[in-house]
Amino acid sequence: MHLTPRIRRLAAPAVALAAAACLCATTPARADTVVIDTVDQTTTRTGEAPLEGCLPADLIGRYTIVEHTVAHVLRTDRTLVVKGVDSYDFHMDLPDGRYVQSGVDYDRFTLVLARPYHTVLGIVTEDERTIYAADGTPVGTLTIKERRKAVFEDADLDGEVDPGEVIVERDSFALTCG
User: What is the pTM of this model?
Assistant: First the structure.
């Protein structure tokens, strides 16, 4: 089974947020103290997958995704706020000579953790890619626009989102091919 780069990358903001939270795990010594940190990291992933939605699912290409995450973390004794951007450089080579290159490609994210375990997560995604013929002529496009928002209370304090703990969950997703 192949996981598409899109599915893999949807987890990326969560990974960046978790890394930021780990960096900020200690609580400020005084209630009126504010600590501000910055996360700035770049990772590269490669693999094989189909181009979701716009080409036949059995046309498997080799992709490289370079992800650059910049996040600002504000921490007080009762709140952790992480706000940032994951930007992506996506390139896929297809076996028939065509290739795909990203243009605008980012996730903007905000995470607010307020004690006792009230969480707000928002992510806005814009992803525009161009499909090129082997000679470099543009032959198609793929555009993804998505907005996700979740608000939940970790009532049993187990660190997991359980049934009944989600207060608000909204997701809008549009994929167009041209």
Answer: 0.74
